[in-house]
Amino acid sequence: MxxxxxxxxxxxxxxxxxxxxxxxxxxxxxxxxxYYGDTLNYxxxxxxxxxxxxxxxxxxxxxxKITKVNEIYPLVEDSASNKIDxxxxxxxxxxxxxxxxAYLVDGRFLYKYKIxxxxxxxxxxxxxxxxxxxxxxxxKRGDTIATxxxxxxxxxxxxxxxxxxxxxxxxxxxxxxxxGDNKYVFDFGTDNFKTYNAxxxxxxxxxxxxxxxxxxxxxxxxxxxxxLFLADDSYLKNFVFNKTIGRWEEKSKFKHSGxxxxxxxGSTDGKFVYFSDGVGIVxxxxxxxxxxxxxxxxxxxxxxGWAQGIKLVKDGSGDKxxxxxxxxxxxxxxxxxxxxxxxxxxxxxxxxxxVWLNLDKSLAFANTDFVLYxxxxxxxxxxxIRISSQEYTATTDKFGKLKIVIKAIKINETRIxxxxxxxxxxxxxxxxxxxx
Length: 436
Known about the structure:
- The chain is mainly β.
- Helices cover 0% and strands 53% of the residues.
- A hairpin with a 5-residue loop joins strand 14 (153-156) and strand 15.
- The protein is globular and about 60 Å long.
């Protein structure tokens, strides 16, 4: 939504920040909201990880209870050696040779932590790309890792060496995913859904979708049947890939009752899919997309649930659906019965979507304007925009969205780091622009 009153802010560029990382567990740490994360069954325990609040939170689901086990905090050191809070943007879990690893990005760096012992994580490596990209997402691709940046997407091996790159970007990093280990790259945009060949990087198909709001969206790919399940703001759809014409063909669709959609996952038995539309979770037959079960995000005693990201993992008793429910994290069984629940101790009033920032251009010239916009903050919340030692304020609209015109001023450094903090919610996000 556009704001009527735009603020013009003159800013100066500041020195590149040098990032350090340390882990600290703090039982009294305050969390705000949960939109998306990663899960994995490790040694018969379901591990849940998320960076939605700017740091890594590690949970364990055992015997019907979600317990926070640890937190890993990034630290930033500025040019004046004053330590300030940094921010992790995304996390991906991977098991390799019996050990559990967490891959994280904080903008400048890709981190590899060994977290087999959740209470005692070990930093294995931290790598910075020489191209000065700004990493906001990290994604598994087989036994390799992909970072999603403002410039491109890079593929890293286990030693954190770049082995490939793609000229594919998305302002919402979670909306880029892979189909198969090395078959497709999916890019869910605001009004289209693009499929690329993962080997040649050529665009295969561009589907029109009904996506009114700019927010987190994921799809489910059934590799065994070369089949795609996608939920937009009107329908849950199933596509099969027609190799003769080289594109997706719609097989079936189901018009859902919501006015938005977020995520789709598939059951391990190949019979069902689950999708989230904010209001709740729907279970549907995979062949005909006939709904068989649904549950509201507002579980008893919880008035602010809004189901966004979902993950499916199997343990000894069957499939479990982990729901990042904005105000809490839920674990549901395969019949959508709640079997686990976690809510942070405090409530600091975050927005109804994942925090995000974007720019109308990645390159601006001195004394020209560029637009910074975003969302996911609290409604009518005062924001602090930090530019080196200078601070400015802005206010979101009633939907927690931000739009500000900024005038660029060139100095010796060409890259500007822009940090936005919510004064009430504590939510924060960063982005980068190049100025010449």
